[in-house]
Q: What sequence folds into this?
């Protein structure tokens, strides 16, 4: 049960990260910012749940915010 739940959460996390990257490619700052907030929330939640390592999360948050700030 936990494996399936974790896999589902990981998939939604990857989708959230991809949504930010897509909106940055389209140069759409408004949607990029809203998607960034969702991605940050999911990343933080994944550390709390023990799914992701805190260093991985810090790296992703830094990478995404850098790309959004470049718009």
A:
């Amino acid at each position: 049960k936990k494996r399936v739940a974790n896999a589902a959460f990981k998939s939604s996390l990857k989708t959230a990260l991809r949504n930010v990257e897509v909106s940055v490619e389209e140069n759409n700052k408004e949607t990029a910012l809203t998607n960034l907030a969702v991605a940050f929330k999911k990343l933080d939640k994944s550390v709390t749940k023990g799914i992701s390592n805190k260093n991985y999360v810090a790296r992703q948050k830094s990478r995404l915010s850098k790309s959004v700030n470049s718009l």
Remarks:
- The first helix runs from residue 2 to 25.
- The mean pLDDT is 96.
- Helices lie at 2-25, 29-49, 54-69.
- The radius of gyration is 12 Å.
